[in-house]
Design goal:
Blueprint lengths: L29 E4 L4 H4 L2 H18 L5 E5 L4 H8 L4 E4 L7 H4 L2 E4 L5 E7 L2 H4 L5 H4 L1 H9 L3 E7 L6 E2 L4 E5 H4 L10 H12 L3 E5 L16 E5 L2 E5 L7 H14 L10 E5 L24
Parallel strand pairs: 1-2, 2-3, 5-6, 8-9, 11-12
Antiparallel strand pairs: 4-5, 7-8, 10-11
C-alpha cells in the first residue's frame, strides 16, 4: 500500500510533473451529482425544484460536452426521466450534490496523461453529517475511471481553489487555514502541498470570502480567472452591505499582486446579486462569479 504522504511513488513521476489545467480548457466531460439531501433544501417540494434546476443545467451543458449525472442507485429512474437520453447516469452512493467540492481535481502530466487529486473531505468543516460517502467519492471515481489517484494530505474542496493553468492559484485564508479544515498546518505547509499536487508556483491568498458563506470563504464565489492575467471579481457597491468591505479589500489586494509569470492583473468587477433569503430568513450567499465554462 502506498504512503498517502508520498502519492507519487509507483507512478514514476515527481510532483512537478503535474499541473491543474485552467477551467476554460476543453473538457472531456462534465460531472454533476443529483440532489439527494432533503434537509439541505428544506422540504420535499424544494428538493424537487432543485432537481428540476439541476436537470435543466445538465441538459444545457450537454449541448456542448458530455455530461454524467452521479446519483444514488434508487434515483436512477428519476434522473433518466428528468434529464432524458442526453445525460449519462452513474450509480454511486453519495451524501450531497456538490461534485465541484467532493470530486477529484483533475491534473495532467507533460504528456497529457490524466490523474486526479483526492482531497480530504470533512463536510465543509463538519457542518454536514453524514459525509463519509462523499469523502470517499473522489478516490472511488478515479478507480472506476482507471486513473491514478493522488491522495492529498490536507482538507480542501474544489471550490476552495482556482487556477490559471500557468502556475497561479487563488484561495482564501478563511477556508484553507480554518481550524475546521487543517488545524495545526501553517500557510507554508498548505502552499507546499498545493504546489506539489497542482503544479502551481504562485499562490495568492485573499483573507476572506463573501459574508455568511457556509463554505467558509470559498474562492469560487469571490474571484476567478477569465484568462491568464485577467480576473473576474465579485464586487459590491452598497456600503451598508457586509460584502462591501470584503469586496473592497479583495480588490485592493489583487490590484497589487502579480501572477506566476509576473503579470499585473486586469480586474473586471461584477455587481453583487440582490439579496435573497431561505425559508428561515437567512440571507443566501449569491455570486455571479461562481459559474461553469462548457
Amino acid at each position: 500500500m502506498s504512503n498517502p504522504l508520498h502519492p507519487f511513488r509507483g507512478l514514476h513521476m515527481t510532483p512537478a510533473d503535474f499541473i491543474m489545467p485552467a477551467e476554460w480548457e476543453r473538457h472531456q466531460r462534465c460531472w454533476m451529482a443529483w440532489p439527494c439531501r432533503e434537509s439541505l433544501w428544506g422540504s420535499p417540494a424544494e428538493l424537487e425544484k432543485a432537481r428540476a434546476a439541476y436537470a435543466s443545467v445538465a441538459n444545457a451543458i450537454a449541448r456542448f460536452e458530455p455530461v454524467t449525472m452521479v446519483a444514488r442507485p434508487e434515483h436512477r429512474a428519476d434522473v433518466r426521466k428528468a434529464c432524458g437520453s442526453g445525460v449519462q447516469v452513474k450509480d454511486h452512493a453519495i451524501d450531497d450534490s456538490w461534485l465541484r467540492d467532493t470530486g477529484p481535481s483533475f491534473v495532467r502530466d507533460a504528456r497529457g496523461h490524466l490523474s486526479g487529486v483526492a482531497w480530504r473531505f470533512n463536510g465543509w468543516g463538519g457542518k454536514y453529517q453524514p459525509h463519509n460517502r462523499d469523502a470517499s467519492f473522489a478516490a472511488s471515481l478515479l478507480e472506476d475511471l482507471g486513473l491514478p489517484c493522488l491522495k492529498a494530505p490536507m482538507v480542501a474542496e474544489g471550490g476552495a481553489i482556482h487556477v490559471d493553468g500557468e502556475g497561479t492559484l487563488l484561495t482564501t485564508r478563511q477556508c484553507l487555514l480554518n481550524v475546521n479544515r487543517n488545524p495545526g498546518m501553517a500557510q507554508s505547509d498548505i502552499e507546499r502541498i498545493l504546489g506539489e499536487f497542482l503544479g502551481v508556483r504562485k499562490i495568492i491568498w485573499l483573507n476572506e470570502g463573501l459574508s455568511g458563506d457556509e463554505t467558509d470563504g470559498h474562492i469560487d464565489n469571490v474571484v476567478c480567472f477569465a484568462a491568464p492575467g485577467k480576473l473576474i471579481l465579485q464586487g459590491c457597491e452598497d456600503p451598508a452591505d457586509a460584502n462591501f468591505r470584503i469586496a473592497k479589500d479583495n480588490h485592493a489586494l489583487l490590484a497589487e499582486e502579480t501572477d506566476a509569470a509576473g503579470r499585473r492583473f486586469e480586474i473586471i468587477r461584477l455587481p453583487l446579486p440582490g439579496p435573497r433569503f431561505d425559508a428561515h430568513g437567512k440571507r443566501l450567499t449569491l455570486s455571479y462569479v461562481n459559474y461553469y465554462v462548457a
